[in-house]
Amino acid sequence: MNRFCTPMQLHRFAAGLVVFVGIGLALAAPSGARGQTTLTTLYSFGGYPYSLVEGSDGNFYGTTYEGGGSNDGTVFKITPSGVLTVLHTFEGGDGAWPVGLVQGSDGNFYGTTTIGGTDFYGSGDGTVFKMTPSGSLTTLYSFCSKAECVDGYAPRAGLVQGSDGSFYGTAGAGGANGDYGTVFRITPSGALTVLYSFDAAPGYYPWAGLVQGSDGNFYGTTLDCGVDFACSGTIFRITPSGALTTLFSSCCSGAPAADGYSPYAGLVQGSDGNFYGTMSAGGANGDGTVFKMTPSGALTPLYSFCSQNAPPVSCTDGKQPETGLVQGSDGNFYGATMWGGANGINQACSGGGIGCGTVFKITPSGTLTTLYSFCSERFCSDGAVPTSVVQGSDGSFYGTTYQGGGSNGGTVFKLVVVPFTRLSRTRLVFPSQGLDTSSAPQTATLSVIGLEPLAITDIAISGADAADFTLTNDCASSLEPRGNCTIDVTFRPTAVGARNASLIITDDEGGVAGSTQTVFLSGTGALVVNWPGPIRHPLPPSGPPSVRTEPAK
Asked: Of 28, 209, 213, 216, most Cβ neighbours within 10 A?
């Protein structure tokens, strides 16, 4: 019983045959970050990949919304280098249209399907499943197993494992109050408990997953309604026992629309304790926002999309974010927009000149950088319409696109964001300098021109005559993007003649730990004789001896 469509069905191309083609295409970001951000297409699908998660083995696991023999979707494993293995093919009775995975503490993967399974009405309204890393799948629960679907149906997001070992999630529809959705808890063995059934107010259609906060409660979003029917979406907190509090209601008209509305995605709790997320619409330009919210519900918009334009292309910074955020190891947040970007005039992915999506970075204070604009290649072979972004243990970002690629059925990509540096001088030449005297200092400035901080591990002078040069600097251990620091070198020769050494800066330039930048140092030691001046003999007290009179004899 497929009662309504998923949001991605509104945007995707018509489904075709499932063709898996690995193309390994590496591209530099076309949005002004060339040489700093590199995207590699690891795999091209024919079945619309929807999600990605890194397993404990270092590989990535994900789902395709369609594909397989019955065209009901698959679960796959892909290595960081792009070798893909299909682990399971859904066939309807065990679920269809899988939407998300999480690896449990037992090492198995748990997920949901939007339709399929065996329900009370025999129509198939979604499942919860468990799958071993090798692909053995067990259906734990089929939704709408009870009359009137009071247990919910049509889950549209994955699960989160709570600190109690159970899994928590949302069903997009059903429940005790009609087709408004539920929050549920399910044990690893499949015992499901409905914790909350939504109603028309204060919000409904929980299409995103949950996150457990540091306080032990769960936080999530609803797509529609709010405190009244003029509003569109809420943010809520729910205790593990099911007591729900609406923290924020978003409006789609009037002044409150500046906060954004219609949150398709869930939240992430930052290291500062606040929650961060995206609104798919609204904001200053009507094209979505990134926001920060305190645990008590005070919401601050950090950025409004479509704030950057480069005619004839509009919204070069992206528009309509429908994926959640992930906090990177650098403390910044990373996410994606479905549309917009630097390639807005490319008609191949979406038409209408609205672009094919972006990957972005945003600081906790709201400074946004577009890292990559999709559909930078002909026929969008690099992917289009991104649906997920995660950071791997190697520091790179991995994700999926719903369109584009070799078969126009989406891709898995790897995005490497690396710091790059510039030295103002690569050689410092000192004029002749007297032995054991110090010259005036000469300066080299180190600047970060990339999009990521530069980690500096050492600044030192080496070489045969290193003892003749000394340095001082104001460089911290980490240099922020667009930041710089200065290194002053003084020459004090200890021997006559040419003196040479090297200033070595060790950092992670280019994303490679242990990288070095070199400034060559040279000078000449000179022997300086300090003459005392003209030699003068003291005069006798009687005057000059120029005239001498002998006494008479």
From this structure: 209
For the chain, domain boundaries: 10-417, 421-526
Q: What is the CATH number of domain 10-417?
A: 2.130.10.10
User: How many angstroms separate the CA atoms of 104 and 87, rounded?
Assistant: 17
3-state secondary structure of 301: strand
Tokens of 136: 């053995």
Give residue-wise pLDDT tens across range 137-161. Answer: 999 999 999 999 999 999 999 999 9
Q: Using omega within 30 degrees of 0 as the cis cutoff, is the peptide bond preceding 431 cis? A: no
In the CATH scheme, what is the homologous superfamily, with its name and number, of domain 421-526?
Immunoglobulins (2.60.40.10)
Mean pLDDT (whole number) for 56-77: 95
Question: Residue 4's pLDDT is what?
Answer: 39
pLDDT of 377 above 90? no
140 sits in which H/E element: strand 137-142
Calpha distance 91→72 (Å, rounded): 6
Instruction: Please give the backbone phi and psi of residue 509, each rounded to the nearest 5 degrees, phi first.
Output: -55, 135
Question: Is the bond preceding residue 202 a cis peptide, omega within 30 degrees?
Answer: yes
Q: State how far the Cα of 516 lies from the Cα of 165, in Å rounded to an integer.
A: 46
Chain-centre distance of CA 293, in angstroms?
19
